[in-house]
Amino acid sequence: MACKILNSSNPPVVCRFSSIKPKAGSKTITLSSSSNSQQREVVSTTAATKTQVLKSNAYGVKFKTLGACKLGISRYPDFEYDAEGGIGTGSGSKVPDCDPLNNEISVSFDIKTLYIPPLTGATTRFLGLPLPPFLKIDIVPEIFQGSIYPESGKVDLEFMAKFWFSVGSIYRAPPLLVKTVLTSEESNGTIRSGRGKRLDKEGNCRLVGVATVHPIDDFLMNTFLGLPTECLANLNAVISLSNSS
To answer: Which domain of life is it from (predicted)?
Structure first.
């Protein structure tokens, strides 16, 4: 802003006043609250607890087949089957809201890791004699899953597999589809039945399962086995559970 001072004998004097207002000194006020940090600690603790619970509910499971097993079909005498060397791995999780005195572990085996020895002259005997040379029955699992009750030792495992009969390179029949529940309890059919044995402290058990075998597109096999008919699996096995935490 400018102004003029008039004087008759002297030229006008011009004076200027600054229009810029001085800046007041700035101050920073910091507000701290313990509630935010406490909330973060609570959230962090809750997340850690949930993670720990999830880990404690996760399991690894291993399956091994042993010797002294039996397989039977139709009304023929049972095959004596040495399944030593069979193996498989999988994962499991504790079923929520189950009986705390008899926890249920839901398990599922990775089919890629599951191996069950074939029936051959080296593993199988019929009426006291080994299977004829070149005769082979491959077992190819497709489903193996179910429930294990560690406290009571009860086992129920859904099992589905294809059984491939072959005689060298001369003959290979279409697969027989077998679907059953391998259980440590009783399994009963019309002409076949079996009783299993629950898990002991070392994980040993006997699993049995009766299944209906339907006809296939092969007249020879249908006639020889009398399809449709029933078959029985009677397996000695070891099942072990390990907590993933």
So the answer is: Eukaryota
